Amino acid sequence: MAARQREIGLFAAPGLVFATFRVVEPRGPGIHRSHSGAARDPQTEQAREGNSGRKEVSVKRKPVKPLLQALAGAVQRLHLRSYEIYQPVLTSSGYTAGARDCEVRWAAIAPVLEAAGALSLVDLGCSEGYYVLRAARAGLRFCIGIDFDQRRIFTCTNQLVLNDFQNAGFAMAPVDETLLEGLPKFDAVIFLSVLHHMMYQNGIDYAARILQLVAARTAKVCLFEMGQADEHKESWATRMPDMGSDPHRWIADFALANGFARVEKIAAAASFAGETERALFACYP
């Protein structure tokens, strides 16, 4: 059980953790004990063991009572009216509209995750958690999103519970050097539309350091996108470095210079103001 405790404790800080995961214990000889302490003969458990030699631990689920679930859904609908929703949010009537073309991006991201054989994923700056929940539904075994906006984390956890997502969770914390230095490696890292804010606020050297830390936490692939200097409708564009006539090439070179060995442009989608297209990259360590 010590290994199980270490794994769970890994994501207990910083910030708020809200997650639903299936625990798998290693197979071992002899008599095992249930959660109540009663002895079990491992031979009677044989049907629950897969070819991998691992045994799924059956945990009695305790669902939210229907009345409280209905009230939580009503609170969610009120909450979603209180701020601008950045990503589509799953409600009882389907996905709401979001400010970004997340579906276009997911269509490019999903095959990359499958080709890489990704089993674990972290979304740094997850907003409403769209990619985390899509990845969990797609079969990844451990998906976690991190954001520091309390409104968005509230939206994330509501979707998690009301739609019974498993193998997904969320933590409330700023995406900074302290957080990144404390994270383990993940098979896949999603890092979309975050780095340019760090770049114009704290400078290119700080942004380079952040990207190096992201690369160090990437085991298989990082899905990366950032704002560009040619987004002239944005007030921050004049504070960005000069990216020349080809911002996509500039960003790819920046990723190559800061921890990634190979960078492939896998899609392009509309910028926030819709005046140009941002490149979506698959970056490999």
Q: Assign the CATH superfamily of the domain at 100-125 and 175-284.
A: Vaccinia Virus protein VP39
CATH class of the domain at 100-125 and 175-284: Alpha Beta
SSE run: HEEEEEHEEHEHEHEHEHHEHEE
Computed over alpha carbons, the radius of gyration is 21 Å
Strand order of the biggest β-sheet: 1-10-9-8-11-12-14-13
Instruction: Determine the oligomeric state from the structure.
Output: single chain
Q: Largest sheet, if any?
A: 8 strands, mixed
CATH topology of the domain at 100-125 and 175-284: Rossmann fold
- The chain-level mean pLDDT equals 84
Strand content: 15-25%
Structure summary, number of beta strands: 14
CATH architecture of the domain at 100-125 and 175-284, please?
3-Layer(aba) Sandwich
- What is the CA-CA span between the terminal residues? 33 Å
What shape does the CA trace take? Answer: globular
Secondary-structure-derived class: alpha/beta
Descriptors for this entry?
285 residues, alpha/beta, Rossmann fold, eight-stranded mixed β-sheet, 9 helices
